[in-house]
Specification:
Shape: globular
Number of strands: 2
Order of helices and strands: HEHHHEHHH
Strand order of the largest sheet: 1-2
Helix content: 55-70%
Radius of gyration: 19 Å
Length: 178
């Protein structure tokens, strides 16, 4: 078949970029209640991990953050439980911008991964300190509705380190005050 008579093929992931964008999509906006419930589940797992001294708990926490960072709530067990089961039981919805939440997931991924690596390398006290920092941040999100990662995102955006077009909805949030 010549190029002129060849039937067009559907675009596959990566050919035009659209497919890969869908694979790595993160919701925008995000239901704040689902994010808070997910953070609460992280707190529960972190407490259990700290109490048992389980390295596997650190690995599970890190994998969960990486799944949420890279794929949004689609394949993370905690996010699926929050979005599909627990949040609908509340019947509440409060939409907030997605980019700061994704940024917060990135911070959680880095801290939890560093904690797991430190534990594996024999630096248990440093690993548990990082896990405690993560627990504080997740607790603030879950119980007080204060997203520390989102606050850092706002500060970085206000200082021009994160371009305003990354999150135009964030341009008017309270963190943008001078």
């Amino acid at each position: 078949m010549s190029k002129l008579t060849e039937a067009p093929r559907p675009a596959t992931a990566g050919q035009d970029g659209t497919g890969w964008r869908q694979v790595f999509a993160f919701p925008n906006p995000v239901n704040e209640y689902a994010a808070r419930i997910t953070a609460g589940l992280v707190v529960v797992l972190a407490v259990l991990t700290l109490l048992t001294g389980s390295g596997w708990g650190l690995v599970l926490i890190a994998v969960g953050f990486w799944l949420r960072l890279l794929f949004g709530p689609r394949i993370s067990p905690f996010a699926i439980l929050s979005v599909k089961v627990l949040t609908p039981l509340l019947g509440k919805s409060r939409l907030v911008p997605g980019p700061p939440k994704r940024f917060a997931q990135g911070i959680g991924a880095v801290i939890s991964t560093a904690s797991a690596i430190l534990l594996a390398a024999g630096f248990a006290p440093a690993a548990w300190i990082l896990l405690a920092v993560l627990m504080v941040a997740a607790s603030l999100e879950s119980f007080a509705g204060f997203c520390l990662g989102c606050a850092v995102f706002g500060i970085l955006q206000r200082r021009g380190l994160i371009p305003e077009d990354v999150c135009e909805a964030c341009n008017n949030i309270s963190l943008r005050r001078a």
